[in-house]
Specification:
This protein is α/β, with parallel strands linked by helices and about 325 residues long. Helices cover about 40% and strands about 15% of the residues. It has 13 helices and 7 strands.
Length: about 325
């Protein structure tokens, strides 16, 4: 009997089983994201949509928002279309709430009318009852010339597949690995995460606050009394914006009612351009210029432009304003 081992037994394996199926996570855990962060996530995702011209939150918490949390202008300034978004971070968002959201949208008065109304939900809206209600509300909005869009958990997850940086900020780097893949993680290797930025801003706030309090401690009634922090004692100034408005006035032959061209009718100055167009169609007109002044706080004025210049004589508070802004944005 030959005791030698057959040669084929010494050969390497010539066939391997199929590798295990490792499927990436397809739906992100939106239910673990806070309401405020879900709203921030929707806002940032909307800004990534094609041809977004402008996007901003509509109103603040506690204000009457007519059911709209975010509005976006799609297209250029001359041909922009309004799209409205409502963010719903709720555990139960059934058919009645779908109908209520659409009804609340239709109650609003818009000029121009939004071309699309999008409901952003943190949960899945795949159930039969919800889908049937979505079809009903789609038909209702189509009669008003409005398209209904649904961004539920599945839809949002599909959009976020193309935006690993948003997944990184709102869910963390481990979720990028299992949701977007290892290639996405490698591209984000040197990027600060959202938590890194929060930590950095906190440290900058501590640094700035310490330096500002050291150079400007404020007044105290006694050496033992702790000075009032800079943010607590700074009063933001008002900005007076002066504009010149050209108004079409009726001629002296058509003024009537005892008025003369030197006595313009008292109107809300913000409506003058619209009213002047009406007058121009009805009467022969002459144009006059009026100077108007609009006052608002510096915190309302600054965000309206990307770059602002603060000028003033020494001692007028330029440095104090900059210190105040630095502390606000680093909180």
């Amino acid at each position: 009997m030959d005791s030698r081992i057959p040669a084929y037994l010494e050969s390497p394996p010539d066939h391997l089983p199929q590798p295990p199926a490792v499927t990436r996570v397809q739906v992100l855990p939106f239910d673990e994201v806070t309401w405020e962060n879900f709203e921030r996530l929707c806002l940032r995702l909307i800004r990534h949509e094609a041809e977004i011209y402008q996007c901003s939150l509509y109103g603040e918490r506690g204000q009457k928002q007519r059911g709209i949390d975010i509005i976006a202008y799609v297209g250029g300034p001359s041909q922009r279309r309004v799209q409205a978004y409502q963010c719903k971070h709720e555990e139960d968002f059934g058919p009645s709430k779908i109908k209520g959201a659409v009804d609340k949208f239709l109650e609003g008065r818009w000029d121009p009318q939004p071309s699309m109304f999008v409901i952003c939900s943190s949960i899945s809206l795949r159930s039969i009852g919800v889908q049937e209600e979505i079809l009903k509300q789609t038909g209702k909005l189509e009669k008003e010339g409005v398209e209904l869009g649904i961004w539920d958990a599945e839809s949002l997850s599909g959009k976020l597949k193309e935006h690993p940086e948003l997944v990184d900020d709102f869910f963390g780097r481990p979720w990028v690995e299992v949701f977007n893949g290892s290639d996405a993680v490698s591209h984000l290797a040197d990027r600060l995460t959202g938590q890194d930025i929060v930590t950095l801003r906190g440290r900058l706030f501590t640094l700035y606050r310490t330096l500002f309090e050291r150079h400007d401690p404020g007044l105290s009634r006694s050496p033992l009394e702790r000075p009032v922090p800079f943010l607590a004692r700074y009063a933001p100034p008002d900005i007076a914006e002066h504009r010149t408005v050209i108004v079409a006035m009726p001629s002296s032959s058509t003024v009537g009612l005892g008025k003369t061209p030197d006595e313009p009718e008292q109107r809300d100055m913000s409506l003058l351009p619209l009213q002047s167009e009406t007058i121009r169609r009805e009467h022969p007109t002459s144009q006059r210029e009026f100077a108007i002044e609009r006052r608002e706080t510096v915190l309302q004025w600054l965000p309206k432009s990307c770059r602002s210049v603060v000028l003033g004589e020494p001692g007028t508070g330029k440095s104090a304003l900059l210190r105040f802004i630095a502390l606000l944005i680093s909180q």
